[in-house]
Amino acid sequence: MQPTSDDFALPPGQRVRPDFPRFGIVAYARQPLPATEVRIEVVGAIEQPIVLTASELATLPRVTQRADFHCAAGWSHRALEWSGVRFKDVWEQLILPKARPTTQIKLIVLRCQDRYRTALPLADLIAADVLLADRLNGQPLTVEHGAPIRLVAPAHYGYKNAKHLSRLELRADEHGYRAKVRLLDHPRARVAQEERGQFLPGWILRYAFRPFIEPIVRAIKAIGDNQRS
Ligand SMILES: Nc1nc2c(c(=O)[nH]1)N[C@H]1C(S)=C(S)[C@@H](COP(=O)(O)O)O[C@H]1N2
Ligand SMILES: [Mo]
C-alpha cells in the first residue's frame, strides 16, 4: 500500500487516526473511577509516604506542549496539546525533598484508579517531555482521556501513558514487579525503537495488534455510552 501524506514521517509501523478515541484494555474501562480530585500517593522505598494534590502540583511551573500520540496497537493521533507539570519537577521539587527515597530509585510503578498499572524507568520519566497533565487541547482532561490526571510520555507507546493516575511506587529494581500481560509490556516501550512488547520484535506485533484496534475502540465506546446513560 502506498503511504498517504498523513503517514509521512510517522514512527515505524504507525498509521494516522484522525480521531483520538478512548483506548486501552477493555476490562479497565468498566472499572469505577472513585476520585475526581487529583490525589497521587507516593509509596515504596522512601522515608515518608506522601500524597500529591492539585494545590502542590500548582506550585510547579505549568507547561504546555504539542506531541503526537502513538498506541502500540498501531494508531497515532497527531499534535495533541497537553498542559500540566513536568514529571522531572515533581520528582526534584516534591518527591525527593518530601518523600526522601532510602535507596537509589530505578523504576516507578504507575498505578491508576481503574486498577490499570504500568511502569517506567525513572531515567525515562525525568525526560523534559514527560508531564503529569490535567488539560488537553485547552480543556480540562475528560474521563475518557484520563481525568483527573494522567502521565504523558510521548516517546513511549500509549500504554505507558497512565490515565487516572493514583499512585507512584518507587523501587530500586524490577524485582517483584510484574505487569499483567507480559507479552504486551516492554520495560521501556520506546516508539522510535518500535518496542511494542516483549519477546517478539515490534514489526511482528504490528500485524498481531492491528486487527484489534476497531473492536477495542467500539467496545470501549459502548462502555462509556452506557456509563453516561
Ligand atoms: N488507567 C489506564 N491508563 C491507560 C490505559 C487504561 O486502560 N487504563 N490504556 C493505555 C493505552 S493501551 C493507551 S493506547 C492509552 C490511550 O489513551 P486515551 O484513552 O486517552 O486515548 O491509555 C493508556 N493508559
Ligand atoms: Mo495502546
UniProtKB/TrEMBL annotation:
Residues 35-175 form the Oxidoreductase molybdopterin-binding domain. This is Oxidoreductase molybdopterin-binding domain-containing protein. InterPro entries: OxRdtase_Mopterin-bd_dom, OxRdtase_Mopterin-bd_sf. It comes from Steroidobacter agaridevorans. It holds the Pfam family Oxidored_molyb.
